[in-house]
Write a structure and sequence with these properties.
- The protein is mainly α.
- The chain folds into 2 domains: 18-108, Alpha-Beta Plaits; 115-169, 5' to 3' exonuclease, C-terminal subdomain (DNA polymerase, domain 1).
- The protein is built from 9 helices and 4 strands.
- It is flat, with a radius of gyration of 19 Å.
- It starts with a helix and ends in an 8-residue tail after the last helix.
- The model has no long low-confidence stretch (mean pLDDT 94).
């Protein structure tokens, strides 16, 4: 929530000036930890990134055990807790990361991807805002399981090119590299 909106809603609130330089420095420390495990890092923000550890053979290639180690090193070096999501694509890794916050670690293996997303609310999909959610509400779509009842062609008729993306995400499919 933007601070201007927070101030309107809660005029008695005390606002602390952000220390962006400190945040950036800590973010750099965290990214140095990431670099110990992979060069394939896609930063999303100061405190969030996708890591591709496919080729890391530490812990016999266990991405879950790598995530445990990364979380441990972040805490040791910065004093901060971190959440991690482990999965075979970005969509599910992000869902997994959000699933057990704060200080969580959750894994969605390939054989559980489609069934895991069934209970997800449509609003959890990246790109589904209020307008799309209202459109889906008219179609009586509240969860991925509801969305899975539609064919790719039907979703494309309703949502254009985004319909194909919705079809794939509702089945745990995300082709982004």
């Amino acid at each position: 929530m933007p601070s201007s909106q927070a101030e309107r809603r809660c005029p008695q609130a005390v606002f602390v000036k952000p220390r962006f330089e400190v945040y950036k420095q800590v973010s750099r420390q965290i990214h140095l930890v990431f670099r110990e495990f992979t060069d394939l890092i896609e930063p999303l923000s100061l405190d969030e990134a996708y890591l591709d550890v496919t080729n890391n053979m530490l812990f016999n290639g266990s991405a879950y055990r790598l995530a445990v180690e990364i979380k441990s090193l972040i805490r040791e070096r910065t004093g901060l807790i971190a959440s991690a999501g482990v999965s075979y694509n970005k969509f599910l890794a992000k869902i997994a990361s959000d699933y057990k916050k704060p200080d969580g670690l959750f894994c969605i293996p390939p054989e559980q991807g489609e069934s895991f997303v069934e209970s997800l609310a449509i609003g959890r999909f990246h790109g589904v805002g209020k307008v799309t959610e209202l459109h889906m509400d008219k179609l009586n779509v509240k969860t991925c399981a509801d969305l899975q009842q539609f064919s790719a062609a039907d979703l494309q008729l309703e949502f254009g090119k985004f319909g194909q993306r919705l079809y794939e995400l509702s089945r745990g499919i995300d082709h982004r590299p």
